Amino acid sequence: MDAMIEHLTDITFEPAVGDGITVIDFWAGWCGPCRAMAPQFERAAELRPDYRFAKVDVDAEPVLAARYGIRSIPTLVVLRDGEPIAAQAGVVGAEQLVEALDRIAAAGPAPKVAAAASAPKAVGGR
C-alpha cells in the first residue's frame, strides 16, 4: 500500500482525521470492486498530497464501518476536521475524486448545523 495512504483502526482513527480534509476508503480484501478502487484511490493520493487519504478494512473494523453507516463497499467518506461532509458508494475514478475534493476544499468549512440536518453529500457531486 502506498505510504501516502494510512490504514486506520478504531484506535488510530480519531487522531488521524481531526484536522483538514480526509478521504476514507471503506473496503474489504474479498471485494472485487474494492480491488478495482484501490489504484484509483492511490492515484488520487498521488495527485493531491495536501489531502489525507486513509483506508478502513470493514472486516477488521466493524465498529468504524457501523459508525459511518457503511452498507456497501467500497464507500468513500470525506471528513473535514473530523466531521463527515460527503460520501459515495461504488468505484470512483481518481480524476472525479480529486475534482470533488477540490470543490469541497474551495467551499471552505460549512457553518455548524445540527447533526440531524447535515447529511453528507455525495462525493461525485450528486
Write down the domain tally: 1
Physical arrangement of strands within the biggest beta sheet: 1-3-2-4-5
- CATH-assigned fold name: Glutaredoxin
**Which class do the helix and strand fractions yield?**
alpha/beta
Q: How many distinct helices?
A: 4
Principal-axis shape equals globular
Q: What is the strand tally?
A: 5
What value does the Rg take, in angstroms? 13 Å
Structure description:
Helix content is 35%, strand content 23%. The protein has helices spanning 10-17, 32-47, 62-67, 94-107, and strands spanning 5-7, 21-27, 52-57, 75-80, 83-89. A five-stranded mixed sheet has the order 1-3-2-4-5. The chain is globular. It is α/β, with parallel strands linked by helices. It starts with a strand and ends in a 19-residue tail after the last helix. It has a single domain (5-117), classed as Glutaredoxin, CATH 3.40.30.10. The longest helix is centred in the N-terminal third of the chain and has 16 residues, at 32-47.
Summarize this structure briefly:
The chain is of the alpha/beta class and 126 residues long. The protein contains four helices and five strands.
Set out the fold topology.
Blueprint: E1 5-7, H1 10-17, E2 21-27, H2 32-47, E3 52-57, H3 62-67, E4 75-80, E5 83-89, H4 94-107
Parallel strand pairs: 1-3, 2-3
Antiparallel strand pairs: 2-4, 4-5
Helix pairs in contact: 2-4
Question: Which structural traits does this protein have?
Answer:
126 residues, alpha/beta, five-stranded mixed β-sheet, 4 helices, 23% strand, Glutaredoxin
